[in-house]
User: Fold this.
Amino acid sequence: MPELPEVETARRYLERGILGQSVSAIDVRLPKLLRDSPLPSLELLLNHTVVAVGRRAKVLILAFDHDLTLLVHLKLAGQVAVFLSSGERLVAGHPVPAPFGEYPHKVTHIEFHFAEGTVVYFSDVRQFGWFRLMPTSDVEAAIDAFAFGPEGTGALDVDALSAIISRRSIPIKTLLLDQSFIAGLGNIYVDEVLFRSHIYPATAARDLSDAERNTVLGHVPAVLAEGIRQGGAKIIHNIAHPVDQFPAVHGRGGEPCFVCETTIEKIRVGSRGTYFCPNCQPPTH
DNA sequence: TGCGTTGTTTCACC
DNA sequence: CGGTGAAACAACGC
Assistant:
């Protein structure tokens, strides 16, 4: 389930695979994935060259020459698979299709072929993702319209964000999921941030102490960095397969906490499945 | 088979 | 109008 680390991994793979390359063929098997696209057809990208591969929040930004840019959101279950001409595969995002299996898979909906031999497969078992093609000159306004907050990977303005936390009554988890507060966290990494911060996820944001607010904000870039370092969290059918004890709580209901061996619990916060350690994150407020 | 799944938007309401 | 919580939506696997 692609959050910022999975999308950033996809961005890096695409940059390595297709930057400077020219589109030689496009196969769109599920045209409806171009939802609300200003330009109606990906065919417009034929013979165009990739000039930049960017990302804002969880949105991939593929810039081509001659004023064309493709925005991609992987949503719940999107996957990007880059097949280099060497035969090496770079796969980011959802674990379906199996990275070492056959492509295109039945849930592979769009594929790009490049003159240099690289092939990119976009797959999405849930079909919730979207593609939007537009003039590059319109991208800035399109991204602004999302009203994303600061990138969770970067240096955060702790004073300003802490002040916002102190005024909100919603659960701290719900606030951290709000992309206009901080961009990039999703359900997995929010649970990890709160575990490292020793904070019960349903705690009202305004009930956090000064120290707790700083702790939470401090863990955001660190947790995202660990996700990126791993190329995304390994979670299959909602069961975590931790690497270096990460993720520590998300997808580990019924399993022992890596720190204290207390059984990890699952609750619902803001109608989202939420994992926490009842000993490390007691509901003290 | 109806429920769970997530990121995001929409809606009713205060 | 803004904050809030819940519902809606996309579609499918189990």
